[in-house]
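Comment thread on ticket #2218

A.B. wrote:
> Attaching the input chain for the structure job we discussed in standup.
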Amino acid sequence: MTTLPPATIGRTLLNKVPEVTLLFWIVKIMSTTVGETVADFFSTTLSLGLNGTTVVMLALLIVALIVQFRQHRYVPAAYWVTVVFISVFGTLVTDNLTDNLGIELWMTTVIFAIALAVVFIAWFATERTLSIHSITTFRREAFYWLAILLTFALGTAGGDLFSEGLDLGYLLSGIIFASVIAVIAGAHFFFKLNAVLAFWAAYVLTRPFGAAFGDLLSQPTDAGGLGLGTTITSAVFLVIIVVIVTVLARREKKEQPTLE
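C.D. wrote:
> Ran it. Output below, let me know if you need it in another format.
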């Protein structure tokens, strides 16, 4: 029998968030792309409209969150399904503000930036940390998922502001966001930028990067895309997500300690 020290047991069994690895960022970017294309697929291709799609995705997100909160540790399938649905719903929140309420993109960007800052302030004031490596209580997990939702909404607004509002197009917008992400990564690895700050900054920016990439693939050529359509783009990226999450789930199962 292998006995693990208490700190290791707590980190392995209680933390509800995966380690931040290359696969983490790949699946995260894929989920942001899916968030953009799936929202368009349900709204346009299936003719549910923005309101109908919002209701359906909110219901699915609630179910996913219930399942996620019921877990006692990080479970790849439950975690990443929640990320995908929160990505779609975060996209829809921004779309509702801009399309249904007529709020301009720069304003929605400011609104979500302020809202995210308020969540971070409340989170730190309550828990004294914003680290994702200590999501071990219900309250911390609630703060975490609220912050994640706002990063997707903010990323959607900021991405649309660059690609559509400033008319930079999907390709140029994607290059800009990828470049900023690279700068943040370099600042962290080579100049010791605070890991928590670097993580959340990159998390926000991978949303507009993934959205720009998804739009570049799915949108028609006359709109600046490659014309693959939302159905093909969503299906391809969902398959990739399923494959990677399956690999992560098997790896997680092998790494779980045996406690007797």
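A.B. wrote:
> Thanks. Noting for the ticket: The two ends are 7 Å apart (CA to CA).
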